Amino acid sequence: VDVTERKGAEGQVNDRLRFVKFLSELSAACVNASSDKCEAIIGSALEMLVKFAEDPDLTEDACSAIVKLAEASASAVPDEQRRKALQMVVEKTTSDATKRQARKLLRPAQ
User: Fewest beta carbons within 10 Å, which of 4, 40, 47, 83?
Assistant: First the structure.
């Protein structure tokens, strides 16, 4: 195996580990936080997930997590931040199911 390929593979593994660690820390933070602090944590988490979605190796996982977070915490995230994150999901994901769910969440409540 070529050294460049090995370094690339190591980078991908490190990125994946960072992402998994982030999700684990997010879960622990929300479990241990009061409801008002949880809102701030969720807003910060959404920002971080958008950054993770910029990494081609993490795009699909991050987009899926954004949709799940937006769905579960609609009232805890400012509308504009939520809308921007979901719009980014629609633009970046290759998953039809994730794209469909993001579009559904973008529709105004009827």
Answer: 4
